[in-house]
Amino acid sequence: MKTLGIIGCGAMGSAIAQSLQDSVLLYDSDGEKARSLEVQGKRTAVASLQELMKRSDCLLIAVKPQILATLYDQLREHGSAAKAWISIAAGVSLETLSEKLGTDEVVRFMPNIAAQMQASVTAIAASARTSKEHLSYAQQVAQSFGSAFILPESQFGAFIGISGSAIAYILQFYHALAMGGVAQGIAYPTALNIALETAKSAAYLALGTGKNPVELATTVCSAGGTTIEGMLALAEGGFDATVMQAVRKASEKSSKLEALAKDAKR
Predict the structure, then answer these.
(1) C-alpha to C-alpha distance for 194 and 161, rounded to whole angstroms
(2) Domain endpoint, select from 89, 124, 151
């Protein structure tokens, strides 16, 4: 069984640590953050990066990209080339990670904030030189805090558009639905709960039946009824086009930021 060490115990690092069933080692430059996550026999804080590297088979990088850039020398000094790696550092490519860490055993994660509820949707990317064993292990780690999808790194921008950033679009849609309920006389807390439960039922329906969402939606639309009236309002407001544009904008912004990050390292 591999021992996983987590570098960084911020919001995402701590969420991942608390989701794992196997024992895990923790390191943060703020030692109190790591110690606050300790659970006897399951999560153990270590005093130094050197100790974490020595005791771990695989390291998960959960620090901001600018902090990671200051750690490469230490990681190489402590034997990064002999370890397997998982990184959630946004905008840091597999190519850069492999070069700086001195190994091809590198996988990138792109989780979303629902990791804290063990409900993240995480994209996974690995280079062609990464071993199948490490990719399989990384997938198991990702699935411990939600669902996981293996994608080419080139599709990470699109993934951000439909998941990483889109979770905010969906939350905004819940709010808009609730406000519509308020306008029709339902108190906001009640309207929001109704909207959230309805969204949950829609997801269960789509996942459970495996049917196309359009097919399911049309079954709800009776001729001259209430649902088709609401669907008409969405169409007139450019609902589909607006959502697709939001995905495109987020994807394009992600690509620009990653390009800037690469330029900055040259």
Answers:
(1) 26
(2) 151
